[in-house]
Amino acid sequence: MSDPLEKVMAEKTIVTPPDEREHQDLDHQDLEYQDLEYPLDAQLDGELDLDEAQAMTEIRPSVDDEAKAPIDEQAKALALAIATAADDRKAGNITILQTGDISYLADYFVIVTGFSNVQVRAIANSVEAAVAISFDRLPLRTEGMSEGRWVLQDYGEVIVHIFLPDDRDFYDLEAFWGHAQRLEFTPTPLSPLPSYQHRQNSY
Questions:
Q1: What is the pLDDT of residues 8-42, one digit of tens each?
Q2: What is the tens place of the pLDDT at every residue in 63-92?
Q3: How much is the pTM?
Q4: Would you give the DSSP letter of residue 62?
Q5: In 3-116, which ranges are continuous DSSP H helix?
């Protein structure tokens, strides 16, 4: 089976503009400078005492201080709607990964399990119908529907992965993207239909 994610990765490439590359080079130089125990001129002169060195270390920016990309609320709403549509078709182990800070592929991955080829396709159809109704959108591409083992639906900022259990274990996307933050999803139980006797009494 071909890897659906490889096709998406091949198409979603990044070309960094020259001005951004120059900015990245300067940032890289700054990070290299941070690795020095003391500033270079102070090392040469030997005039910096420990208190001054500690103070300068505290005010230096670090990678952790960099602002993360703001959360796209529309993308988040789309991911949650997709998870809900998958849950409506009894998908298992629904996981939402916030990948926007660590990958150019998408802001969110929604990963779910279907327990047969038929269910995998049914989940994909449910997702497509729900997104079309609520967001008036269709996926940019869909891969794997014919095999029904790993269906990938690409909505741009959200990518949906619907796996059979063995394929999900084999590819283990959660481990590969293990440093991504998880978005909590609580399935909403459907309201039970009123019983026949209750309907009769209401007339």
A1: 666 665 433 334 434 444 344 443 434 434 343 44
A2: 343 445 567 899 999 999 999 999 999 999
A3: 0.64
A4: -
A5: 4-11, 18-34, 40-45, 50-59, 73-88
| Beta strand pairing call for 108-113 and 158-163 | parallel
Q: Which residue has the higher pLDDT, 198 or 33?
A: 198
Cβ neighbour number for residue 144 with a 10 Å cutoff = 23
Q: Which of 95, 92, 99 is nearest to 71 (CA)?
A: 99
The DSSP H or E segment spanning 200 is: helix 196-202
The angle at the Cα of 63, spanning 62 to 68, to the nearest 5 degrees, equals: 125
Could you give the domains of the chain?
17-65 (no CATH), 70-183 (3.30.460.10)
CA–CA separation, 92 vs 27, rounded Å? Answer: 43
Instruction: Give Cα separations from 156 to 33, 129, 133, 160, 193 (angstroms).
Output: 37, 17, 17, 10, 37
